[in-house]
Amino acid sequence: YCWTLRSDVLKSSKEGNESQLPDQRLYTNTFQALAKINREEGPRALWRGFVPKAIRLGVGQSIGLICFQNLMTSI
User: Fold this and answer.
1) Which three-class secondary structure state does DSSP give residue 71?
2) Which H, E and C letters describe 16-39, residue by residue?
3) What is the mean pLDDT of residues 44-67?
């Protein structure tokens, strides 16, 4: 989970980067994007969106567990 959050930040940054013209792109590859984000925005930028994602995962897992328990008791 900890790595997927950082990869989501990198993916979003690279997707925004891909929409620009080739000579205006900020990032050339994933490792260069990781280094540039870390250097320019700081390491906390890689954890952007942690709280909403953690809440969404917690709620989703709780709903899934309740549905599974109800299904198992009805069988």
Assistant:
1) helix
2) HHHCCCHHHCCCCCHHHHHHHHHH
3) 86
